[in-house]
Design goal:
single chain; about 400 residues; alpha/beta; Rossmann fold; seven-stranded mixed β-sheet; six-stranded mixed β-sheet; about 35% helix
């Protein structure tokens, strides 16, 4: 056991008005570590059909994500000499936020997206060929047999969501052309621990990866991690590049990261300090909000995010402290947050209503949001950023 966050509702299970009076389903949210393989994961696997068949997260609502996707697409198109005879596939391709850039460069693409509502947007609004299925070994084999073997397979922020890790990575191996690359991005365990990013823990995120755990996982499925990059996005992520085993040299960056991890990845005290810091953060944030509310201030929340759901529910921050939530996603507006039942509005409400403070729960996009909300701040509004420590901007 690393950390227990109690029983919580599903982080993206937003509620309509008609659902507010009905009991909400909850599941245990407990973070544990395997001493044998170093994988950090939660104990409860909610059926993926419950989590992802109808999904409220559209990547294109984040300018940061779209720009990030464009950069890697342009880079790999040039570095790998991709052209009209190539194929780029993405697992959990969402609304086409990434594949659109390859398509615009004349590179054939294929999205694989389990959420029917999001796959429809990718196909119908962005013109991205999209298979509406959960990716795994059998789907990959079928696609390969149909001639859909890929030069590049992207998997951004999806591996953490996967119960059958071996099946998905074996699928990468089956669908990847000789000489091709699998490019995976995921939040990095070290950043989560060091920056107290406990709110990254929710039922959709089954696993929390070190390179040590990923290296073992890929090797046992016929692939080898040949390079790694450290990214600032999502509070700290890693991007790995994998190839068919033995087909490419392993970079010094991989060796250096594995060497660094050997000093902490199986250290019990490292994880205990993390759990202690989460409890300290809870005390500090609740005390700050209570003090502000008692002084007559109105407090809103920015971001009806999954990570926000974890923080609000575990810290017990509800309507006694918070007035409402704003979010840029039109899919979320008009609904209510799980567990805490806060109404979600457009960010325009911050200008109209002018609450004195706004708790920024999508802190991983803080720079983007602070720029977007310049007018609210110029009118005297202040943002409270809770991670890694409470500060006001």
């Amino acid at each position: 056991m690393v950390l227990s966050l109690g029983n919580t509702p599903l982080a993206n299970a937003l509620l309509d008005d008609s659902q507010l009076s009905a009991p909400e389903a909850t599941w245990p949210l407990e973070l544990v570590r395997c001493e044998a393989c170093s994988l950090v994961q939660i104990t409860e696997t909610v059926p993926p059909e419950t989590l992802f068949s109808d999904y409220a997260y559209f990547s294109s609502f984040s300018d940061t994500m779209v720009s990030h996707a464009k950069q890697i697409a342009e880079r790999l198109t040039a570095d790998c000499s991709l052209d009209g005879s190539s194929l780029v596939a993405e697992v959990a391709s969402n609304d086409g936020y990434l594949l659109q850039w390859y398509r615009d460069a004349g590179v054939p693409v294929l999205g694989i997206e389990p959420a029917e509502n999001i796959a429809a947007v990718a196909r119908d609004e962005k013109g991205i060929p999209t298979v509406n299925e959960f990716f795994g070994k059998e789907v990959a084999k079928r696609l390969a047999e149909e001639g859909q073997r890929a030069d590049i397979i992207h998997a951004n922020n999806v591996l953490a969501h996967v119960a059958d890790l071996n099946g998905v990575v074996a699928g990468f191996q089956a669908m990847l052309k000789p000489g091709g690359r699998v490019v995976v991005e995921c939040p990095y365990l070290k950043e989560l621990i060091d920056n107290v990013e406990f709110d990254t823990i929710y039922h959709e995120h089954l696993c929390y990866f070190s390179l040590t755990a990923l290296d073992r996982l890929f090797r046992q499925n016929g692939l080898e991690i040949v390079d790694v990059e450290h990214l600032s996005i999502h509070g700290g992520s890693i991007r790995i590049f994998a190839a068919h085993a033995g087909s490419a040299d392993v970079s010094q960056a991989v060796r250096a990261t594995l060497a660094d991890e050997s000093g902490w990845v199986n250290d019990d005290s490292y994880y205990q300090r993390f759990a202690d810091r989460v409890e300290l953060l809870k005390t500090e944030l609740v005390a700050r909000l209570t003090e502000l509310k008692s002084a007559g201030n109105r407090i809103a929340v920015y971001g009806a995010s999954a990570k926000g759901s974890t923080l609000l529910n575990y810290f017990g921050i509800d309507r006694s402290l918070i007035d409402y939530v704003v979010d840029r996603s039109t899919v979320k507006q008009g609904r209510h947050t799980p567990g805490t039942h806060l109404k979600i509005y457009s960010p325009d409400r911050l200008i109209e209503d002018r609450p004195q403070y706004c708790l920024l729960l999508t802190w991983n996009f803080a720079d983007e949001i602070l720029r977007q909300q310049r007018r609210y701040r110029e009118n005297g509004g202040q943002f409270i950023i809770p991670i890694p420590e409470v500060r006001v901007a």
